[in-house]
Each structure stands twice: as C-alpha cells, then as structure tokens.
Amino acid sequence: MTNPRFWHQRILAAVALMLYGNALNADPAASLMAYISENAPVLVLDHVRVIDGTGTAPAEDQRIDIADGKIVRIQSAKIKSAYLPAAKVLDLTGKTIIPGLVGMHEHLFYPTPEHPSDGLPLFGEMADSAPRLYLAGGVTTARTAGSLEPYTDLSVKKMIDSGHLPGPKLRITGPYIGDYRALLPQLHTLSSPEDAGRTVDYWAAEGVTSFKAYMSIRHDELKVAIEHVHARGLKITGHLCAVGFREAAALGIDNLEHGIVVDTEFFPDKKPDVCPASEAEKDFATRVEIDSPAVQEMIRDLVSHHVAVTSTLAVFEITVANRPSLLKQFRAQRLLAPQAWSAYLKRRAAIAEANDPLDAIELRKEMQFERAFVKAGGLLMAGCDPTSYGGVLPGYGDQRGLELLVEAGFTPVEAIKIATQNGALFLGEDAVIGSIAAGKAADMIVVAGNPALKIDDIENVETVFKDGVGYDPQKLTASVQGLVGLR
Ligand SMILES: [Zn+2]
Questions:
Q1: pLDDT (tens digit, 9 = 90+) per residue, 114-144?
Q2: Are 232 and 280 members of one domain?
Q3: How many A from CA of 314 to the centre of ligand 1?
Q4: DSSP line for 37-54
Q5: Same structural domain for residues 169 and 282?
Q6: pTM of the shown model
Q7: CB 392 within 8 A of CB 386
Q8: pLDDT tens for each residue of 217-249
Q9: Which of 102, 106, 222, 353 has the smallest C-beta neighbourhood within 10 Å, fewest atoms?
C-alpha cells in the first residue's frame, strides 16, 4: 500500500474521475438533455418551406411527419391528413427546412493561437468545441479530412454515437498519409511506399473509415496507399502537391480537396514527386486560365475517372484582404479564446496591409473552376476546413462555404445540394442522409427566413434535428464560449 507507483495511479484515477466523471459516466439521455429543445418521438413540422437537398425548387407550405427519428412522409400542408397518434405539431410558418449539412472537409482541430517567433506550426485537438459547433451550425454528418489525434477522434465519435456527447455523425479519416516538406511535426513523414501501405492498414484496423493523402506524398507512395485503401473497400481523398490532379486520377484517387488552387500540374517547372506549393500557386494566379484547353482537359479527366472535388472556399477566402467582413466574424469572437481572437485579428490585419491582388484572383479562379467542374458533370462537395491561421470555425465555416458557393455563381438551391446530397452520395449514405424524403433519417435544419432567396439566412439556424431529436444551437455554442483555440 505504500508503493509510490500505486498511489500515483490512484491519484491519477481520482483526478480523471473528478475532471471527466460527468462526460464519461453520465446516463446518455441526461448528458444531452441540456442541449435538446425538441424530443417528441412523433413530430409534425407544419407550414414550412422545404429545400430538399436534391436541387429541385423549394416547396412552399409543406408538412413533414417524423416518427422514431425518421421522416415518415412529406406532403403539402394543405392536405389535411390525420396526424400520427400522440404527434406534437410545430407551426413553422416563415421558416425553411433544409437537410442537415454533410460536411466533407472537417477537422476536430484548430490552429493554436500563440507561439514563439521561432515556434513550430501546431494545431490543437478541439474535441470539446468542434463537435458541438458543427452540430450547432447545422452539420449533422461530418467527414474529417485528416486527423492529428486519430485515437481522440475515434473516441469522440463513439461517445457521440452512444449519446454521451452532442455532435454530428462523424466519419473519421485516419492520420495524414504524407507530410509537407517535413515542416509539420504532427505529421508522419513517409519513408517508403511500404510505409504508406502499412499506415493505411494499421489505421483501418483501428476503425477509421477514410483516408487522406497529403502534400509531399510521392507517386509510388500514393499508388500503394490507394491500393491498400481500396482493398478494404474504403475511399481516399488528397490535398496533393508533389503529385498533380491528373496523375492522381490515373492512380485511382477518389476525391481531391480544395480544388485547382492546389493543383501543381500546370506549373512549368514542376518536377516529378516534388511539391512546389507556393511557386505553383503564384503561377496559377498569374497565368493559368480556367477556360484554357489544358484545364478543361484536366476537368474532363477528373469527371471521367469519377473523382469528386471538395470545395473549401471559406478557408481560401480568409487569405484575401478584408474577407469576410469583420461584421460577419463577430459571432466567432464570442466562441474563440481571447488569444485566438487577437491572433486572428493580427494576421487578418497583416493580410489587409499586404493587399496582394493575386489572392483575390486565386479565389475567383477557384470559384470559376468549381462551376466548370460541376458543369462538366463532376461531383462537387463542400466543407469548411477550420485550419490556416484561424477564423474559420466548425459549423459557421460550413455556412460561409454555402454563401461563397452562391457568390461563385451557383443558385442557393444548387449550393445546398452540394453541401448535403452530394456528400451523402460520395459517402454511399444517400439512401439514409443528405436529402429530405420519406424513409430517411430526420437530419434537418430549421432556418429562419428563406435561404433560397437570401443565402445568408443559412446563418439563422434555429433547430438542428439529428435522427429526429432537435438541438438548440444557442445552448451548444454557449457551452463552449471562449474555448475555440483551447480545447
Ligand atoms: Zn484540411
């Protein structure tokens, strides 16, 4: 009993219980109750405008019947069919329902706000704030696009699925396969193609369901990674740099992140297996045109290989001077740790000061590319990517992405389809999520106003239904106020 190691363990266990007892031991129903605003097992959402996620025009004055977490039927509210027994009826006149967002480039981490002048670029795991903010923002399914703490991400997913934590349906992607010139210490530097295959096998066995290749990955490493992922019936996406888009499509990659801004294949000095990130980006902004034959050929190639693209306009936008408007960012201020907010403002001011016109050109060309890709028949999805220097928050960033898709020239209804049904299609879950139809999960967002006329109304989320349970965005965000950047 006097063994110091024994006491050390006892103390650790006691501290863990004190700190985390609530999260780990509470009865699931009780832990979620604080965030739930609607919990009736049979529910009727009446007199509501429906944008169903399939790209069809909004339907006015609809009625949606929900039972046991599923949509039972959807019909005009003018048809006065009998309610199901014990139904609770909500009059949603003036409001719009859209499917829960299917976020396809999400992370449970965020840049850490302070660093020494010679400090390392580090990202902090946001296991507390990120899931709540995704759900509050209307994201009911989130595929992470690269993990820095895969064990944490997998545990958080389990806690959400078992009803112990509020959050979206998470689809966990393993650790990044590849790094960026060995500059990011949280990423594993591949030593060989075998290493890529071994990494895939290990994490697939641990339970991750998707993979992401990253910038420095070379042709042969990507080839083996893709083979190992596909051998398990899973999919792999990539934020590539050393390998170009057409090269990756030929290797069989399933999805490319971010779009043409990161495609280095048009850079005249591109050498095989070398990542010229910033040089190629500058060249892209100054020289590459979306309607050029070379780019059009690349688009056709992606489409014919069924390679999906994930739009991440919200994280590109912040590198353009004074975007988004500071007014729009004030709602993020409340959620960010004070140091994270001031770090954001500092970097934002530096970008405004530099005011490099190439940044705005890059964003415009990326928007053009996304339009052209969809026009050619490509599957475009969306996600927020809460990284870079900060200011793009889980959930809010996904809403901003929708606004930017509309700025890019998509109609609001098309933008909503990109952010809902298209992601579900890629995940192979479109029979259950991604659109509003009888038999599907009741994953839906109630929005005040009409985003089909004014996409910014997407910011006015009033209730987020996940499997028919309605969550209150205010309560979810209030619970992590001031914590983004910390945990
Ligand atoms: Zn990312």
A1: 888 899 999 999 999 999 999 999 999 999 9
A2: yes
A3: 11
A4: EE--SEEEEEEEEE--SS
A5: yes
A6: 0.95
A7: yes
A8: 999 999 999 999 999 999 999 999 999 999 999
A9: 353
